[in-house]
Design goal:
- By secondary structure, the protein is an all-beta fold.
- The chain is built from no helices and 8 strands.
- It has an 8-stranded antiparallel sheet, with no helix packed on it.
- The termini are far apart.
- The model has no long low-confidence stretch (mean pLDDT 84).
Length: 137
């Protein structure tokens, strides 16, 4: 069994223009961690913190966004894999939009070229500008 740990860092800058505003520079980037063979098991873990611009298509503005995502995959048997994934993000600002999602999946590899998978997910969204309660799917 091979153990691997990778750390990736990237930086970016984006120029955004909102309605009635001049250009603004939005710093961004990602910090990612990837690991295999945790605790003596063949487990694949990834986690990332990301930043960048978020565009409000309806209001015509650009905001800063911060997000966190992660995934855990475990090969249960030679042809079976179970995965758990999650992501959460927030638009930074006084009335920041928030969203989160969680997934649970199972996959069966019938052959080298054919894989069947199924799963379930749940999403949650909250926009403080709207009067109703958070939406969950």
């Amino acid at each position: 069994m091979t153990r691997t740990v990778r750390l990736r860092a990237s930086a970016s800058a984006s120029e955004g223009r909102g309605v009635g505003a001049g250009p603004r520079l939005f710093p961004g980037g990602a910090l990612e961690l990837e690991s295999t063979a945790l605790a003596g098991r063949r487990v694949h873990l990834t986690a990332a913190l990301r930043a960048g611009p978020a565009v409000d298509r309806y209001g015509g503005d650009v905001f800063e966004r911060l997000g966190l995502d992660g995934a855990l995959a475990w090969p249960l048997a030679p042809r079976w894999t179970i995965e758990a994934l999650g992501a959460a993000g927030r638009v930074l600002g006084a009335f920041g939009y928030e969203a989160a999602r969680g997934d649970l999946r199972a996959a069966w590899q019938a052959s080298r070229r054919l894989t069947f998978s199924g799963g379930a997910f749940s999403e949650w969204h909250q926009d403080p500008r709207l009067p109703q309660a958070p939406a969950s799917f």
